[in-house]
Amino acid sequence: MTPWVRNGHYINGQWLTGEQTYPVFNPATGKVIVNVAKGGAAETEQAITAAAAAFPAWRALTAKERSIKIRRWGELMLEHRDALADLLSREQGKPLAEARGEVVYAASFLEWFAEEAKRAYGDVIPSPFPHSRIVVTREPVGVVAAITPWNFPLAMITRKAAPALAAGCTMVLKPSEETPLSAFALAVLAEQAGVPAGVFNVVSGDAIAIGKVLTESEVVRKLSFTGSTRVGKLLAAQCADTLKKLSLELGGNAPFIVFEDADIEAAVRGAMASKFRNTGQTCVCVNRFYVQSGVYDAFTKALTAAVGKLRVGDALRGDVDQGPLINPAALKKVQSHVADALGKGAKVLTGGKEHALGGTFYEPTVLADVVPTMLVAQEETFGPVAACFRFDTEEEAIAAANNTPFGLSAYFYTRDMARAWRVGEALESGMVGINEGIISTEVAPFGGVKQSGLGREGSKYGLDEYLELKYMMMGGL
Ligand code: ADP
């Protein structure tokens, strides 16, 4: 294992432990990896104070000076790619190849925003008055709170920390209690990269207590959250009193439409990548497959064959394609969705039950004859279950795809250019993959519409989330 396993909070450049601890499990074995300090209100206050104290000096650095440290942080991640991946797989369960991919993806945000740090341009507006000039600059928001989930224990952090630090903000991070070790490892590397004490702080433990202090603080000017819609709404409400800026990356219910004119082989490849990555536990994973009648049998047959080849197992024991679900609650949700679908007439084409490995392993599953009244149609299953609906017309598919309060990602396969534009524009979704199953990249804006959230991460737009405009009128000229 990596030499950077830490078991306490990182506050103001110091590692602090406490009397109370909680266990971090390996979901593949159910065994405890290490007990880590359980932080609460007091540690969070301490971290906010440290972030506020570090803010003036950090924002006063030139963009290039900040850029050099952020870039170095990303380079260190790549230098230690395999060790980070090992730790990540251990606490999260994803296959090593996926974990290595995540390290590279996470580091890409540090590289990207190290560059963007230098491009926080302002503006000069022609003044309507002869004796004044109007200048617009961009300033860092201030102390930022970040709350992140367990499904991408590294990337969901750098996607927030990189633009925040690039903009000149300082941060208090509360990672998921399921996966704090990756967050601690990031803090070790931040320090090695020369990020000054207090600029990046990590507190893990009692989520509700930590979240309350972060959201109620007048010092914290912004909350960036990735997680469930339920918790996102709760935190937004908690932030109302201090009127914080908000970035919310919440749940989705992604449709994946296969039209009769699609390249079916390509659609199956896209479906496999988008549905089964991370054991189906990403917010952009497909949740609903809509397949046009003429290709329904061909597509579901090919998908079933591909799903049948997935190798399930412990990420650290040989080559596997699918790991366990993160915890027993996640397994329960998958079980209840499948039971509900079968009770309402769905058919199992493959899988459909707990895996023989036990624990939280679940068989990669394909369900046919899915209809809108089933839970799999309405809620994100967040597991390895491909639920296939049948449709006849384009209008029907678009209406069904949009019939959800969510709007994060959507996918469709067609070889008709006019249809590609028409459907791409009609889908109520922040991101659309057209003949593509994987759309995440640091250079493009990631985010949702409707109840999937607010704001965008990554890309040239991502820096704005951590900047405020300031307008200055210079008069008396
Ligand atoms: P998921 O279903 O992906 O675990 P959650 O929204 O439950 O999504 O969790 C995402 C993050 O939000 C985690 O870091 C979790 O600890 C945190 N969290 C959950 N509930 C609260 C809360 N009441 N206050 C603050 N943070 C919370």
Automatic annotation (TrEMBL):
Aldehyde dehydrogenase domain: residues covered: 15-471
Keyword terms: Oxidoreductase
Keyword set includes Phosphoprotein: no
Active site: 249
Family note: Belongs to the aldehyde dehydrogenase family.
The protein, known as: NAD-dependent succinate-semialdehyde dehydrogenase
Species this chain originates from: Dyella flava
